[in-house]
Amino acid sequence: MSSPRGGGSPSSSLGAISVAGPRVLLDLLSRMGVDSRRLARATGLDTDRLTDPAGWVEGRLGMDLLNRAAETVGDPLFGAHFGRDHQPGRLGLFDYLFLTADSLAAAFDTAIRYISVATTGGAYGWAEGGGRPVVERTLPGGPHFLHAETYALSWHLTMARHATGSPIRPTHVGLVQPAPKRHHALTEILGVDDVDFGCPATTITLKRRDLDLPLLGADPMLAVTLRRHADGRRLPADSWPERVRAFLSDGFADRPVTLDAAARHLAVSPRMLQQHLREAGTSWRAEVETARDSRAVDLLRNSALPVRAIAIRLGYSDDRAFRRAFHRRHDCGPDAYRRGTLA
Length: 343
What we know:
By secondary structure, this protein is an alpha+beta fold.
């Protein structure tokens, strides 16, 4: 899986998150003596909405809350500490999906499959690094996402250690963030010696023998029940075509409109975006063709632009390619279509 450093605004690329995460964070802040309700309101979070166990909030708001929490307590490693001190089970369904799997590998498989019960932002999957299995989590890059990235790393390791009862130590960790002047404290929190910064994605490289470890709370019957419940909790697949359509609605002329560009904008890998679209019964190519055709019809009906100019505006290589594509959909060329609408 290849992933971008980021792209798009935080609101577009972070999607939505379950209220479980902000709720756990606000509980922690309250125990630390912080006026958590005031902090939530300053962020723009509706605290009443957080009481709904099945509720969702904008990922941007959750990110802002995490950053404000770090500033308020004055901890430059707040995200890493938050993940390290996580009490497994506090995230509810998502945690229990992980904890009831048969093995550590199965736990990560389940988390990857059901990430959308916790968040719709970023990409998540397996990769290979130096012949070893790599868990890869992608969030947008930049200092704004430092605490989210280090929290994600710490959460993974905390869950793995708790679930197996073993002091799991990754062989390598990769971070999207640029290298700080000193990172010894961070490597101590993560329990890893080999760390790289400025990577394309957040990665944890694990030993295969660790992935084979059985989980202390393995419960096949409960796991099946939880997965059935999770299937009903995931955000509908049709939200992904809507996001792609919003990206395409910004036009074709002044930017590359490719699968890679769309994936970068939505902070997922191209493969993951294709998978989401397949699950929703569509495809990248179908969405592009539909968006182009809709825009072409609008320009032919409501503008005096020549066909060649319309072709350029829609990102076709030349007007012949545009004419062929238009004819496939309308059984006539763009000139005939325009004459027919004006008749």
